[in-house]
Amino acid sequence: MSDFYLVAGLGNPGREYAGTRHNVGFETLDVLMEKAGLDTDKMKTFGRGLIAGGRIDGEKVMFLKPVTYMNRSGDSVREVVEYYRIDPETRLIVICDDIYLDPGAIRIRKSGSDGGHNGLKSVISGLGGRSFIRVRLGVGDKPAPEADLAAHVLSRFSGEDAKIMKKTYERAADAIVCMMTEGIDAAMNKYNRSAPV
């Protein structure tokens, strides 16, 4: 098994999706790569994703952005996991959005269901199991029950929420560094929040 971490940020490729609620995984991954001193524009193609390798606080890390679009994220994650022989339970960290959490909230879990998130559903299907670390970032629920969910997650943050999310990407990146250097329990205790800080 590989001794490095695979951090996969989920999102949709293309400029038209940049900054949308569904792309908080990509946004957080960019912050994390910057902490590792990597250029986010120089990721290399691997199968159905973009990858880059580096180190953070002495830990070896591979960063992954699936380019399959959200609903097929698991295809890309599976390719990298299988090729590099990564143990999903201890070495895979998946970052995604969560409409059931307020903007700015962070929820770290060691495993669990997909919670209705199609990207997580695809990763679970691709790996054949639910035991992998996930970092869910709150993006806020639909403005009204009858509102279109797809339109909501493909919309952008505005006003105060945009400022909150910028700080949240930093905190989520710090949480991932913490779990790699101090362990996931330490990261959960320190960074799991139901409201922005």
Q: For the residues shown, what is the average pLDDT?
A: 95
Strand content: 15-25%
Are there runs of 5+ residues with pLDDT below 50, and where? none
CATH class category:
Alpha Beta
What would the principal axes of the Cα set say about the shape? Answer: globular
Strand order of the largest sheet: 2-3-4-1-5-7-6
H/E element string? EHEEEHHEEHEHHH
The percentage helix is 25-40%
Any idea what the CATH architecture is?
3-Layer(aba) Sandwich
Through-space gap between termini: 37 Å
Kindly give the count of domains. Answer: 1
Secondary-structure-based class equals: alpha/beta
How would you sum up this structure, described in words?
It is a single chain. The protein has helices at residues 24-35, 73-84, 88-91, 118-127, 149-153, 159-181, 184-191, and strands spanning 5-9, 44-46, 49-56, 59-66, 92-98, 106-109, 133-138. The chain is α/β, with parallel strands linked by helices and 197 residues long. The chain has a single domain (5-191), classed as Rossmann fold (3-Layer(aba) Sandwich), CATH 3.40.50. A seven-stranded mixed beta sheet has the order 2-3-4-1-5-7-6, with helices on both faces. The longest helix is centred in the C-terminal third of the chain and has 23 residues, at 159-181. The chain is globular, with a radius of gyration of 15 Å. The protein starts with a strand and ends in a 6-residue tail after the last helix. 40% of the residues are buried.
